[in-house]
């Protein structure tokens, strides 16, 4: 049975598109069970048929806690094997994280634990980093703090601005996401005692991206 993916996205959805393309190409054994957004006008939603789209705002639900519960109920209703955050710009509440513990993945555009939070590309430039990249990690209650599964690295070039660096990182984000989703979909990936495990063995250092192509 293909793994059922619940996708959480707030924006453009290029990572979602990479997933859709891989499913279509037969290189990822998964299906999209639903796409969930806190932004009803998120372009990501337009990438899937209407029946798979869900969007609410915290305001429309009567506040952040209520939104979290409504979102969690909607996600649970599509019975996902994995909840995959791709550019989901809202912090998931504790109740949500606990309800789907060990099943929530996030892609973050930095080499965690460096540059948690927002504006990672500009912060890498400001810090004078020679290397930057993306991390795929389990989501826990701490922002961008869960166990890192895999990372992809890119060089920072002299003269880069945040946009140039973001584009270089995005090009490795997509294959990184797909590599990890293949492991997840084939049942090889899990979280145990705060560690990511692959084939039952803890990953003490993040897996490197194997293939730079999606
Ligand atoms: C990506 O850079 C992702 O790492 C970050 O938000 C961006 C989302 O891009 N969390 P997209 O919406 O998938 O195109």
Concise overview:
It is built from 6 helices and 11 strands.
Give a structural overview.
The chain has 214 residues and is an alpha/beta fold. The model has no long low-confidence stretch (mean pLDDT 96). It has one domain (3-208): Rossmann fold. The protein has an eight-stranded mixed β-sheet, with helices on both faces. The chain contains six helices and eleven strands. The structure holds 5-O-phosphono-beta-D-ribofuranosylamine (GRF).
What descriptive keywords fit this protein?
214 residues; alpha/beta; Rossmann fold; eight-stranded mixed beta sheet; three-stranded antiparallel beta sheet; 11 strands; binds 5-O-phosphono-beta-D-ribofuranosylamine
Write the layout of secondary structure elements.
Layout: E1 3-8, H1 14-25, E2 30-37, E3 53-55, H2 58-61, H3 64-77, E4 82-86, H4 94-99, E5 104-108, H5 120-126, E6 131-138, E7 148-155, H6 162-185, E8 189-192, E9 195-198, E10 201-202, E11 207-208
Parallel strand pairs: 1-2, 1-4, 2-3, 4-5, 7-11
Antiparallel strand pairs: 5-6, 6-7, 8-9, 9-10
The structure holds 5-O-phosphono-beta-D-ribofuranosylamine.
